[in-house]
TrEMBL record:
Residues 339-453, 478-582, 608-710, 754-861 form the DUF11 domain. It comes from Chloroflexus islandicus. This is DUF11 domain-containing protein. Residues 848-884 are annotated as: Disordered. The lineage of its organism: Bacteria, Bacillati, Chloroflexota, Chloroflexia, Chloroflexales. Residues 854-868 have a biased composition (Low complexity). Transmembrane segments: none annotated.
Length: 995
């Protein structure tokens, strides 16, 4: 008898996450039944009896049609047309190609066959819908008998642009016959269905598992074969996960041969001889375990999900139906199967409250490895959805598709990832979920992700899951406090910051460090760990403590830092310390911090001076000490007091606040001033004390006052003090001598003539018995001389108050003190005036010295026996003959690396040459340095210069100028002396004019 078979093909589009190269066979064109199969499709007329085997078309059965689905994947190139070809579609008495029609009577015009194609989206409800001519019909083709024969003919072309999806093919047979035929679905390279189809007819890229394969499925049909032996047909039907049971149905097998059902993981025998589950053979014109109208079937409980293999073995010329589960699609060839795996990892094994965990959820379609032909085909995974339930003790932070197409979102603690694209065989990808561990979390955290997916037919595959577990060790919880024990401070004060910590948690705190960044306005002094083990150090204002030992639960400790306040105020010193630590697993926990603020008010800065207006005094005199103060700071000085301890040798008379408000008093030699009002910034004031001198000399009265004050916050600031010393000296005796030397003698006559230069030397000696104080040496040169300004020297150094400044005409030198038997030497020069009056016979000069404890004393000429007499130098007699030259300048100038000897003449009478001599050891050791021809005349002089660079630093040189006249007469001038330093200049202006 003849039976039917149900076959379905669904085509689902592919997704390319990663495109591996698969080394699988390239499928042939989609052909049903497959080329080489002994089975063919057989569609019976509605007039054929149920015993023939076609329940779907019989009015007493399904009373409908045969339906097939033709699927174009959405990855199909829409520019490539898809053709539907039929083999032997008409009722034809000529057999061939493995198909044979059967007739119940004589062929006539009613023996037609009809094939109709419906568009994508047309509802399918076999065996009656869609009805002939229903909405969505693309073509309805009727074939008259004996018109086609055993050859391929084109039914319909889905023209470009091709719409992807499932097309429906319906067929029916007229008259009283069984139409045997085949269908082919794919591309064509020559538009001729009679020629073999091109390579990759149904699979454009030629690669299995990419989701672009064409498929044909059967919704309602019957099968038969003409082979002389028993043949076995394997149908594939998908069992979705979670079903309690399934029922497989077959019809009109006449109890012939055998059926076995093979679970997806069971060993498969294509001949149904071994393994699997033995099925029940249906009898003539009935369903297995049922009736002609009611299905019974073979029920399998708790079936394994996946593709089951239903193997039906039957004898020839027996039309039958192998339905499997009713209303589900079956396949003659195993459709592509995806095989998804999932892995999950956050990269750590332990965590802690407050930390973030980023889970990497990795998935892969391993069907290129696990679905190995010929018993399997790799396939793309569609409708991939990953769900991740956020674990307890954590909070959702974010999710990421990590570059994949799709979306992720969180709702009610569940993160859902929806992939837009299929995952093709061999492809993989990663998505991310980030959570934060909640405060107080303990124990462990386990996160599980589940991946759901379907194959390209829409079959739901068993979900796959992966988990990751993190341990939370017992958690420490450190608290930190910080204080320097003060709210205000002042510059110069020290602050000691104490950093105290306590572990209030339940686990050990390990790897404890404290970092304290010192604020601006302080200077680091030291750090201390106290009784703790570890280390502390400072670098660049950062103080770091590292503890050696863990801090047990409940334990406490403290460390300290000492600083010096350098800020001047107003300022606030805010110091913050940060404590870092880990749990026992080394997980870093949130740092804790503590701060301390100390105010530095605007700071006053008091300056104090003290003076009685005198440096010396005497018994019986009164002294008034004035204590003057000024606030040079920026803040008020408050609580100002001054304390003055009077020295021995004075008797307190009175004290005065002047214009200030406050009080003053004396007790036991201590005078105290207390000011009522603050001293504002920039303000000044003074108080005074009057005493009577009671001590006799020699003595020194030293009086010191101390001023104490605070800032506006009451912080005591460093006291300031000032002292004044007044001497009650003993009398000292001094002796002053004065000698003269002509250092420039124009005519070498030894007399102080016009233009000659005289150098005076004064020696002041203290003959005791006391130190001579505040000495003043005064000297007014002779009226016939002019002071050479700048020539005054004092050894040891003293203060030249007159004589070295332009316009000075007298000499005055002061010395604060001169010890017993000590001496002060003063030198200066004068130049004899030109002309010198004829009535002047000598140059006379005398100096005086006075001091605080000395009598005024006149100088003594040590070359005479007359005490305290002036120093005298004779002048030339009148009408002396003129010299050969008039020398107006003769000086020694420093130049780079030596000395320049420069001279100028006013006139030159019979002068032939000039000669320069140099010596370092006296005149008798002088050597000739240069010979210079004379260039002047009796009416005009000339200027000359010789530079001596052959000198040594630190060596004193003497230079002489010798004029040689035409008659051989010589005139010598000098010496000029360098005194050992090239930076010194010697200059003499020597007008030599006959008188």
């Amino acid at each position: 008898m003849q039976r039917r078979i149900t076959i379905v093909l669904l085509l689902i589009w592919a997704v390319a996450l990663a495109l591996p190269m698969l080394a699988y066979r390239i499928a042939s064109a989609v052909e049903l039944p497959p080329a080489g199969s002994p089975f063919y499709i057989q569609t019976s007329s509605s007039t054929r009896t149920l015993s023939i085997g076609d329940w779907y078309t019989n009015p007493a059965g399904g009373n409908g049609y045969h339906y097939f689905t033709l699927h174009v994947p959405c990855n199909w190139n829409p520019n490539i047309p898809v053709h539907i070809d039929l083999f032997h579609p008409d009722l034809n008495s000529t057999a061939g190609g493995g198909v044979t029609d059967e007739f119940g009577g004589t062929i006539n015009a009613s023996y037609t066959t009809t094939f109709e194609v419906y568009a994508v989206g047309t509802p399918l409800n076999p065996p009656t819908q869609p009805a002939p001519g229903a909405a969505g019909s693309l073509i309805q083709q009727t074939y008259n008998p004996n018109t086609i024969g055993p050859q391929w003919t084109r039914l319909y072309t889905i023209a470009a642009p091709v719409t992807c999806g499932a097309y429906i093919l319906r067929t029916q047979t007229g008259g009283n016959a069984d139409n045997s035929w085949r269908v082919r679905f794919g591309t064509d390279d020559d538009n001729n269905p009679a020629t073999p189809p091109p390579a990759n007819y149904d699979n454009p890229d030629g690669i299995e598992g990419t989701g672009d394969e064409l498929l044909i499925g059967l919704a309602s049909t019957s099968y038969q074969h003409d082979s002389t032996t028993v043949q076995c047909l394997t149908l594939y039907q998908y069992i979705t996960p979670g079903q309690a049971s399934v029922t497989f149905n077959n019809f009109d097998m006449d109890g012939q041969t055998r059926i076995r059902y093979y679970a997806p993981s069971a060993a498969y025998d294509p001949n149904a001889l071994t393994g699997g589950i033995v099925g029940t053979l249906s009898a003539n014109a009935v369903w297995n375990n049922g009736t002609a109208m009611v299905r019974g079937g073979d029920t399998i409980t708790n079936p394994e999900p996946g593709w089951w293999r239903i193997v039906t073995c039957i004898n020839r010329n027996n039309q039958f139906i192998q339905e499997g589960q009713a209303s589900l699609l079956s396949f003659i060839e195993l459709p592509p199967e995806p095989d998804m795996t999932i892995a999950k990892n956050d990269g750590v094994s332990v965590t802690a409250p407050g930390q973030t965990l980023t889970y990497q959820i990795q998935f892969s379609n391993q069907s290129n490895l696990t679905r190995v032909p010929p018993n399997a085909r790799p396939g793309a995974a569609f409708n991939v959805v990953i769900t991740d339930a956020i674990p307890a003790q954590t909070s959702f932070v974010g999710c990421s598709m990590n570059g994949l197409n799709g979306s992720c979102s969180e709702s009610g603690g569940v993160v859902t990832f929806t992939l837009t694209d299929p995952v093709i065989a061999g492809a993989s990808g990663t998505v991310l979920v980030t959570v934060q561990v909640n405060a107080g979390a303990a124990g462990s955290i386990t996160n599980t992700a589940t991946l759901n997916y379907r194959d390209q037919l829409g079959n739901q595959y068993p979900p796959v899951s992966a988990s990751d577990t993190n341990t939370i060790p017992p958690q420490p919880l450190l608290q930190l406090s910080k204080s320097d024990g003060s709210t205000v401070t002042a510059p110069g004060q020290t602050l000691t910051y104490t950093l105290a910590f306590t572990n209030t948690g339940v686990g050990e705190a390990r790897n404890v460090t404290l970092a304290d960044t010192l604020p601006a306005g302080v200077s680091y002094q030291s750090c201390s760990l106290g009784s703790l083990a570890g280390s502390c150090s400072e670098s660049g204002g950062l103080v770091t403590f590292t503890l050696t030992n863990p801090v047990a639960p409940g334990a406490s400790g403290s460390v300290s830092i000492t600083v010096l306040v350098t800020a001047s105020g107003p300022a606030t010193l805010t110091n913050t310390a940060v404590l870092n630590y880990t749990d026992s697993a080394g997980q870093s926990l949130p740092p804790v911090s503590a701060s301390d603020s100390t105010v530095v008010p605007a700071q006053p800065l008091m300056a104090l001076s003290k003076s009685d207006g005198s440096t010396v005094t005497a018994p019986g005199q009164t002294l008034t000490y004035t204590l003057a103060f000024t606030n040079t700071g920026v803040g008020e000085a408050r609580n100002v007091t001054l304390a003055d301890t009077l020295p021995a040798g004075v008797s307190y008379q009175s004290c005065s606040l002047g214009s200030l408000a406050g009080s003053c008093s004396e007790s036991g030699g201590l005078v105290t001033f207390t000011l009522t009002n603050p001293v504002a910034p920039g303000a000044s004031g003074s108080v005074s004390i009057t005493v009577l001198v009671t001590a006799s000399g020699p003595a020194t009265l030293t009086n010191t006052a101390v001023l104490n004050y605070t800032d506006s916050a009451g912080q005591s600031l460093p006291p300031v003090s000032a002292s004044d010393s007044t001497v009650i000296p003993d009398n000292a005796a001094v002796r002053l001598t004065k000698s003269a030397a002509i250092v420039v003698d124009g005519n070498n006559d030894g007399l102080a003539g016009s233009g000659d230069v005289i150098e005076y030397t004064l020696i002041l000696t203290n003959t005791g018995p006391a130190v001579a104080r505040q000495l003043v040496v005064s000297d007014t040169p002779d009226a016939n001389t002019t002071l050479v300004t700048g020539s005054v020297t004092a050894t040891p150094p003293a203060v030249v108050t007159q004589g070295n400044s332009a316009g000075d005409t007298a000499v005055q030198v002061t010395l604060s003190s001169l010890g017993v038997n000590a001496s002060l030497t003063i030198t200066f020069r004068v130049q004899v005036n030109t002309p010198l009056p004829n009535n002047v016979t000598e140059i006379v000069n005398q100096a005086t010295v006075s001091g605080d404890n000395t009598l005024t004393t006149s100088s003594d000429d040590p070359t005479t026996t007359t005490p305290d007499d002036p120093t005298r130098l004779r002048t030339p007699p009148p009408d002396s003959p003129p010299t050969a030259i008039e020398l107006t300048e003769f000086r020694l100038l420093p130049v780079t690396g030596g000395w320049e000897i420069r001279w100028t003449t006013g006139v030159e009478v019979n002068t032939s040459i000039f000669m320069i001599y140099r010596s370092t050891g006296g005149r008798d050791k002088a050597s000739l340095l240069a010979v210079i021809p004379a260039r002047g005349s009796a009416s005009n002089g000339a200027s000359y210069s010789v530079i001596d660079r052959h000198v040594l630093a630190g060596v004193a040189y003497s230079y002489w100028l010798v004029e040689i006249e035409t008659n051989g007469a010589q005139h010598e001038y000098g010496p000029l002396q360098s005194h050992g330093t090239i930076s010194q200049q010697h200059q003499y202006f020597i007008p030599l004019i006959g008188r």
